[in-house]
Amino acid sequence: MRTAFRLRLRILLGLIAIFALLLIARLYMVQIMDGGDYALRAQHQYVSSGQSFYDRGSIYFTRKDGTLVSAATLTAGFLVAIDPEKITDAEAAYAAVSAHASTTREDFMASAAKKTDPYEEIAHHVDEADGEALDALDIPGVSVLRERWRSYPGGDLAAHEVGFVAYGTGDDVVGQYGLERYYEQTLERPDSDYRDFFAQLFANIGSLFVDAKQAREGDVVTSIEPEVEARLTDDLNKVQAEYHSKETGGIIMDPSTGEIIALTSVPTFDPNDLSDADASTFPNPLVEHVYEFGSIVKTLTMASGIDAGAVTENTTYDDKGCLELNGYRVCNYDHVARGVIPMQQVLSQSLNVGATFVADQLGAQRFTDYFKKLDLGTTTGIDLPGETHGLISNLNNPDAVELANASFGQGIATTPVEMIRALGSLANNGAMVTPHLATKIVLSSGVTKKLDWGAPVQVFKPSTAQVLSRMLTYVYDNNLSNGTVRIPSMSVTSKTGTAQLIAPDGSYYQSRYFHSFFGYFPSYDPRFVILLYTLDPQNVEYASETLTPTYVDLVHYLIDYYQIPPDRPDNP
Predict the structure, then answer these.
(1) Burial class (CB within 10 angstroms; exposed 0-12, middle 13-18, buried 19+) of 331
(2) What is the pLDDT of residues 202-224, one digit of tens each?
(3) This prediction's pTM
(4) Sequence-distant (≥ 6) Cβ neighbours of residue 388 within 8 angstroms
(5) Could you tell me the sign of the dihedral formed by the alpha carbons of 72, 78, 80, 81, in that order?
(6) Reduced to 3 states, what is the DSSP secondary structure of residue 65?
(7) Domains in the chain, start-ordered, CATH in brackets?
């Protein structure tokens, strides 16, 4: 009896001790870790009781060594407010304020004239030095108050992906684009200005016990590597400037996980200053625009044919240069016949007639089934708002010419992220993954929630992926820039794509193009898959001219930056 009593007493004391430790930990978080935050809130409320003190979770990039770099954070400074009734010399007050804060004489005088309003905000986002200097002047009727606002340390770096905050339909500042919008419920922090200390003390203690998936409030950590993102952006800007394209974009992804290492398009914007920004640049083309990608789709056609056993890499066909289908001519880019050639040359020389042959060997139904198995025409589920899906309805058209067009990437359209999801399967032993940016959520309680993006979906046999890797490596080594870009120590794959743009009447322009480029490396154990594109480049016809230098530069950069070891040991 006494033994049972002592056991129950020990259990009770143990529970009390655990609760005490948790209470101390929470007290430390509120008083020490968050103490400065509450002090700022208190100061803000003291002067302007109707205003809340802005708070929001952060967004982080992740360097290759795992360290975090702020992509979206809160900056502390000051706002300037006046009590018009206490302003005795408006001109002198304006002169003093304007020396330290951004305001116009017209706005200042209009606010100073409102004698019945005891609180008028004059300027925001005043930095520490100017705020403290103005406060030291102790001007009657002028208050210098602590303030926080959203800032983006990287400027326009990954602006489409990070997004920005702005006033929504009401008086709340909310995420409008990018991760800011997608993870709004995670990043938003409820207004706690009027919580008393003990209410806050116990507010999040439950998160120490519940599954992290049930908690919402926290910071978002992404897989975007800022140095790689900057390099990709710089390369794309060079293409945009040289060829005066309407738009240029790129994605670098880990094909085994779907983690996005870099993702950007130009033109872009600086979320720190939207006053002169072109609002048409705010939507993210990589998930919201669809394009006919052209010849990089031949890679998927060839993979489908090989996977189904309709062709092998040694299969030959008689290339006549052009075909007549449903009253239309389908031709190679140069209209030249190659005679009897193997499948390798379909990819090496990017032959439309060859891709049509593979699709014909598959048959319309099997061809369509493979492209639908690749989830073309569906959203990817990437964690960015506004994602649209591709347009593949032409696959349901029984006409042979539509099947032929689709086989070489015309007549069907996808988003860039949709395309890299499909092509990335070849770099992942035939398995397709979900592209995504966020890898984990760090909750305000300190609990880390790792995000689950689902298991890979097998769309091709691993042996098919190996064959395509071999064929695409041959393209890079022997055909791209006539073999001059071959890397003796590293196997690299590549495929270019050039598609005609659609005119308003539904026909195709004869001299306006969409260029794309796809590849991965090392060929047989890929670390990265890369997709590049440029829309309507001027005075140039082929993607091999516009995007090859960018792709080659990125490959060499990534090899050096990540110190990827050679996979061709006989050629160090």
Answers:
(1) middle
(2) 444 444 433 333 445 789 999 99
(3) 0.86
(4) 287, 288, 289, 290, 379, 415
(5) positive
(6) coil
(7) 34-48+55-203 (3.90.1310.10), 286-561 (3.40.710.10)
